[in-house]
Amino acid sequence: MTNSMKPGPVKPGMTRRTVLAGMGAALATPAFLTRANAAEVTLRLHSMLPAPAPMNTQFFEPWIEEIRTASEGAINIELYPSMQLGGKPGQLPDQVRQGICDISWTLPVYSPDRFPVAETLALPFMVTNAEKTSIVMHKLMDEFGQGEYPGTKTLAFHTHDGGKFHTREGLIQTAADLKGQKLRAPNQAVGKMLDMMGVETVFFPVTEMVVGLSNGVIDGCCLPYEVVPAFKLQELTKFTSAPAPAARGLYANTFSLIMNQRAYDGLSDDLRKVIDDASGMALSQRIGRQFDAFEQKGKEAVIAQGNTIGEISAEEVASWRAMAEPVYAEWTQKLNDRGLDGAAILARANALLDAGQQT
């Protein structure tokens, strides 16, 4: 017991028993009620996107504040956008595991084949909308992907809404329109499907895409609307092609929000509860819902620019899905090679997507 905890002089009307009883009550007070405003722990959150991106301003910043408030100021999270802590987007999972940062938002497709269950929903036509597909991803990871992120505490899994084609010259509405196009593919699996359709595909992180469009390395890209304003893609492209509402989306990249396991374990019980309460399925669904809202804002930017928007019919999308069967077969084998049941994982993903589409 420090000197500050020793009983002071007994005032008139007080006994030693009442003084000690008061001390006992103080010692029993919940930690949050006695905390000062100074943070007990500071965590570093590394983001690949530029500071103005909606994911930073409309999700991470409010989420950080919610955690600070819930912990009574004990947890402070510092946001580092634009890869300010160094490295490349594909290195973020290792940065979290190694403790270079404490939390990050990662894309499994930037580390191809390393997180196969988390990457499964990035196959072509495995998306309805962001909220429903994020719920599907979280369930799929709970059921099949528990061991994919060793050394980390997984906080949420989600997807964006279905991608669209954004091109400089002409709408894409049929497979014939794709032949000879030079497009930035969003991931390995979608790139293989596009290759089969006569596209010259290249792949690089979204953060490098503006240069590719500006210097003519690519004719267009396949991305959701939500990323358009952050990179001013509405100014670099003139045409957008989207699947009909009745069809599955072209693709959705998947995301994992992860935290260094040692950083999580080092928190007190009550602070770990704050992190637990701010993560999980509810957070996955919330991020997905937020991405659906981002999608609408991005579409509004394309419309305001005066760009042309065309529709890819449900029948055309169905024919593309049939064309992609070899991609699904190859992915099933990859999952099998990792000791997983590839057919069961794909069947479960499709069943969840179909069930979600009906709600």
TrEMBL record:
Keyword terms = Periplasm, Signal
What's a GO cellular component annotated to this UniProt protein? periplasmic space
Q: Where is the signal peptide?
A: none
Could you tell me what this protein is called?
TRAP-type C4-dicarboxylate transport system, substrate-binding protein
Taxonomy, top ranks, is: Bacteria, Pseudomonadati, Pseudomonadota, Alphaproteobacteria, Rhodobacterales
Q: Where in the cell is it found?
A: Periplasm
An individual GO BP term: transmembrane transport
The organism's superkingdom is given as Bacteria
- Originating species: Celeribacter neptunius
Q: Which PANTHER family match?
A: BLL6794 PROTEIN, PTHR33376
User: Which InterPro entries does this entry report, sorted A to Z?
Assistant: DctP_fam, TAT_signal, TRAP_DctP_sf
Q: Which NCBIfam families match?
A: TRAP_S1
